[in-house]
Amino acid sequence: MENRLTIVGAGLAGSEAAWQAAQRGVDVVLYEMRPQTSTPAHKTGLCAELVCSNSLGNQLEGAAPFLLKEELQKFSSLIIASGHKASVPAGAALAVDRDIFSKEITRVLEEHPRVKIVREELKEIPGEGPVIIATGPLTSPALADSISSLIGENYLYFYDAISPIIDAASIDYEKAFFASRYDKGDADYLNCPLSKEQYENFIRELKAAEKVPFQSFEKPVYFEGCMPIEELAERGDKTLAFGPMKPVGLNHPETGERFYAVVQLRKENREGTAFNMVGFQTKLKYPEQKRIFSMIPGLENAEFFRLGAIHRNTFINAPSLLGRELSLKTHPHLYFAGQMIGVEGYVESCALGLLASMSATRRLQGEVFIPPPPETALGALYHFVTDKKKTNYQPMNINFGLFPALQERVRDKKTRNLKITERARVALRDWMDKIS
Ligand SMILES: Cc1cc2nc3c(=O)[nH]c(=O)nc-3n(C[C@H](O)[C@H](O)[C@H](O)COP(=O)(O)OP(=O)(O)OC[C@H]3O[C@@H](n4cnc5c(N)ncnc54)[C@H](O)[C@@H]3O)c2cc1C
Fold it and tell me: Looking at residues 276-300, what average pLDDT do you find?
């Protein structure tokens, strides 16, 4: 096999993938359509342009985004190194001067003797491999069509709202109770009950809350079943009580008490360390979400792994389409990386760029790809995108809810997260020894 890797898209994932492969001795051809053809969100022709915030996430030890960055740094990540070079003071976050950041990445890739950047929109998936498709959430329409005809209905493309995910340890179980509607099946849902007065207060605050405005290119086309709660509240004060907050069949299992409304929480992972707010898609501003959701009994001190959001998501149903090498099961030479496969965020996309590149490189070099263990941040993301048992696949940021639960029960969140971090460091060292 020729020692050559084609990468489509020089965003966060594609730039990292190109760098990693080139550093491992592979010749890389990196296609990027900007500046000739742009996306609705990008503004420059630079590699790894940050389209929105300039933050690469939390920088505090004991936070999942910190751990992910630490792991990427162990692999000499170009994105993370450039982030540190371009950093600006931002408290607990690693924020960057976006111009310096992207210029540095562009410079390094342009000067790399093994990387050739081709400024061209690829409209069709290349037939010969290996190829990494890393064209992101705003993949050009022509290429999106080409991908779509290859994978059919598994190509997910819509403006969608996502609902918040809560740290299970922060819920008040004196108020919230486990029950299934009409006692059907197991009591898998955790229910937060509201009285009439609590519900009315909640609706009043929800209607008055600040929402994130749409970008000019974002058309608010929702699926009816995925309406933001604030849109539903605008239709009538009781709409939510007849919709996602419907209380029927959810009386208290011990007292038999009936409620005016109920917010249901569903386990987000097998371990039950995280809960999803069922039907609570929202476009409220983040501080407003925290303020208003803390009005729900049981969630007064809720900590969020992910807050609700709405934006355009173009991604593939990775768990059903990709094999363990992060390439299509039907076309093993075609790897996918970045937000296209359902991770959310700059650093997460970079992480999947690293893994897809590592996998493709090992194949070129005649070696087997060994996936990262789930106890690491890289492994938690890898297992998220390849977990065949996942239903209703939705993009996700790195968070401790994706990691396997600790053997022991640790009540204090900070201590628990530090233990997960320590466990991850040991697992990463073992994995690095295996793949070196
Ligand atoms: C509007 C918006 C706001 C966001 N805000 C944030 C935020 O604040 N923080 C955060 O962490 N994440 C944010 N995200 C998510 C973030 O953009 C992605 O997580 C991240 O940039 C994805 O990285 P990527 O490499 O997968 O895609 P991108 O970084 O988008 O890179 C894809 C690249 O592929 C190129 N491309 C597309 N089609 C073709 C083609 N046919 N041929 C050649 N090149 C092509 C594009 O020009 C682009 O350079 C936002 C996303 C959107 C859409």
Answer: 93
